[in-house]
Design brief:
Elements (H helix, E strand, L loop, with lengths): L1 H44 L4 H14 L9 H14 L2 H12 L13
Helix pairs in contact: 1-3, 2-3
Length: about 110
């Protein structure tokens, strides 16, 4: 009976370790998903066209067609999508364009030609 209790305890420890591993994995996926959603929000605020966004998504899916061994496919897709969105030229041009806009002038009455 004591041996059975020891075996049950070991099984419970292994199950707990597997649950903890899964919790960490889900936490990483959640963080990556939040990053992707924030990038999408920024692009939406910049009025990116649906066509351009579609190209980014299709490029991501194409590059993730053959999953890499040892890497969860969902995480790989999210990671690649984040990289594609981060590399989007529109996000990198935005700060420069804002700096040149009339709204960034110190005096709002000054009109830029």
């Amino acid at each position: 009976e004591l041996q059975q209790k020891v075996e049950e305890t070991e099984l419970l420890k292994m199950e707990l370790q597997m649950l903890e591993t899964e919790r960490v994995r889900l936490s990483l996926v959640e963080e990556k998903l939040m990053d992707v959603l924030q990038l999408l929000q920024q692009l939406r605020d910049l009025n990116i066209s649906k066509r351009a966004l579609g190209k980014i998504l299709l490029s991501t899916l194409e590059s993730c067609r053959d999953p890499q061994p040892g890497k969860a496919q969902l995480f790989e897709v999210l990671d690649t999508l984040q990289q594609e969105l981060t590399a989007c030229e529109l996000l990198h041009r935005q700060p420069m364009e804002q700096a040149q806009s009339p709204r960034s002038l110190s005096n709002p009455l000054v009109i830029s030609c």
